[in-house]
């Protein structure tokens, strides 16, 4: 395993043995010190969900075709008309900023991330998101068990949260975004010509990883090391929901020309991207798309913190990931979600992270 110093100079193919789907693209994990190629011509597609969510049958089919085509081409799409109260997103940014800026190191230490089921859950101090690259970000991953979804009077939020009052708000936000999961998955399945409802049961009250990201203001001693805000990577999930951000930095790799696309989504929209689970079950039809968080183009923005809160959608750990019917000869054998997930993410956490299925864990 390369250490973080080596990781700054590494390319993704150095870690190919961990991948559970085919990834032939070649890119540096960190931003290159020299000039990089950017694609200023390609525009990430924006799709309005409103008519589809209203139940109009023609709109449902049209949305599926638009969404699927965009996911097949680039793996990213911008969603508007999603029906989520965008004031939740504005409040979330303020709460996340306060969350990281007002809790002490002593308050955070008991919550250092550990694997529970498939997912490494808890607090990631700066430069510890992965063992292969010193990302300039602090993160905190909460899965379903960190929220009082059953309204249990005995639920103790202090097991997961370093302060009181955060859990109710972020539970509300996660439940709001959860309403998009089935319509999106059904649309993807329609596009692939599969039974649109074949994942309904698996994604009712789905497993998710909700990550709070705090990118602190950039300091000169960090910049000279060559470390970036978040290394180039592909998500290990079905798909990810990411509310748009005020401070730019998200970049998407266009595999057609191996140039980076600067993604600046309109305020209140939700960015959607494919992950490894979806590439596996679609038999490579919908590839997991490479992206990264870059330094701001305008150096005046270096002094500003960046906030993001992606929500990764999974299936439960005991579920089998199998190539969907009708997509040709299967390139991949069935595999349990936990084995697939932890084998892949061993690249970030070390070889010992990979495990077999344990159906008794509640995530």
Secondary structure layout:
Elements: H1 4-7, E1 46-48, H2 50-53, H3 57-73, E2 76-80, H4 87-102, H5 105-108, E3 114-116, E4 119-124, E5 138-143, H6 166-178, H7 181-191, E6 208-215, H8 220-223, E7 230-233, E8 239-243, E9 250-254, E10 259-262, E11 270-274, H9 276-281, E12 291-293, E13 306-308, E14 311-313, E15 320-321, E16 335-336, H10 337-349
Parallel strand pairs: 1-2
Antiparallel strand pairs: 2-11, 3-4, 4-5, 5-6, 6-13, 6-14, 7-12, 8-11, 8-14, 9-10, 9-12, 15-16
Task: Name the poorly predicted regions.
Answer: none
Please tell me how large the radius of gyration is: 19 Å
CATH topology assignment: Jelly Rolls
Question: SSE order in H/E notation?
Answer: HEHHEHHEEEHHEHEEEEEHEEEEEH
Helix content: 25-40%
Molecular shape: globular
Number of helices: 10
- Give average pLDDT, whole number: 93
- Bin the strand percentage: 15-25%
CATH superfamily: B-lactam Antibiotic, Isopenicillin N Synthase, Chain
């Amino acid at each position: 395993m390369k250490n973080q110093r080596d990781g700054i100079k590494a390319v993704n193919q150095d870690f190919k043995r961990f991948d559970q789907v085919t990834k032939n693209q070649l890119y540096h994990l960190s931003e290159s010190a020299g000039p990089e190629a950017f694609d200023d011509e390609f525009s990430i597609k924006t799709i309005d969900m409103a008519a589809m969510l209203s139940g109009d049958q023609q709109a449902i089919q049209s949305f599926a075709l638009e969404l699927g085509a965009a996911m097949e081409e680039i793996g990213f799409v911008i969603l508007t008309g999603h029906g989520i109260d965008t004031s939740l997103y504005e409040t979330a940014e303020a709460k996340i900023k306060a969350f990281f800026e007002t809790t002490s190191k002593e308050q955070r230490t008991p919550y250092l991330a550990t694997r529970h089921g498939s997912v490494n859950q808890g607090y990631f101090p700066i430069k510890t998101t992965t063992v292969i690259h010193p990302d300039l970000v602090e993160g905190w991953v909460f899965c379903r068990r960190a929220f009082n979804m059953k309204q249990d009077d005995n639920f103790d939020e202090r097991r997961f949260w370093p302060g009181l009052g955060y859990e109710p708000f972020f539970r509300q936000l996660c439940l709001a975004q959860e309403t998009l999961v089935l319509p999106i998955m059904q649309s993807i399945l329609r596009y692939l010509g599969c039974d649109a409802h074949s994942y309904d049961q698996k994604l009712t009250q789905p497993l998710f990883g909700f990550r709070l990201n705090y990118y602190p203001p950039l300091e000169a001693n960090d910049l000279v090391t060559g470390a970036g805000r978040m290394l180039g990577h592909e998500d290990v999930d079905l798909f990810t929901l990411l509310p748009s951000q005020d401070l730019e930095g998200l970049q998407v790799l266009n595999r057609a020309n191996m140039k980076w696309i600067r993604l600046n989504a309109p305020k209140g929209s939700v960015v959607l991207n494919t992950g490894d689970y979806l590439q596996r079950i679609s038999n490579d039809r919908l590839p997991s798309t490479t992206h990264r968080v870059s330094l701001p183009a305008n150096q005046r923005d270096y002094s500003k913190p960046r906030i993001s809160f992606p929500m990764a959608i999974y299936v439960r750990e005991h579920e089998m990931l199998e190539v969907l019917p009708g997509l040709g000869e299967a390139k991949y054998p069935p595999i349990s979600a936990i084995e697939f997930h932890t084998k892949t993410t061993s690249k970030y956490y070390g070889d010992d992270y990979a495990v077999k299925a344990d159906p008794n864990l509640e995530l």
